# Entry
Amino acid sequence: TMINRITHERMLVTGLGPVFATETEFERNIADALQYLASYMNGNGCVNLTAVCKDDGTKVRLLEDAATLERSRRELWSIVHYNKPIIIEGRKVVMTEEIFVKYLNIVLQKIREGIEFNDIK
# Structure
């Protein structure tokens, strides 16, 4: 079976080269984590997040829970902890604490303004 052919080494070496988060994906992880955390602190174990279907642009609401927070937290931690580059305006920019705080503030402002995250261009 396919599962028997997957080894630790094969999981680490894909042959595809490194994959870098885009600015939009980075912002989305921050927004998802913040919105879930705020919902949790208000006594709710899930949060509605807006998403846009790529095919036709239809807006849908996603019901996210702690798994989303954990995925977002893990990806953000990995990028910041290992100073991984993200793609900003077509360029690879190495993550620093300064850049993270800058994007944290940008996302907080967009949330305060009620901007639906996936509608941000």
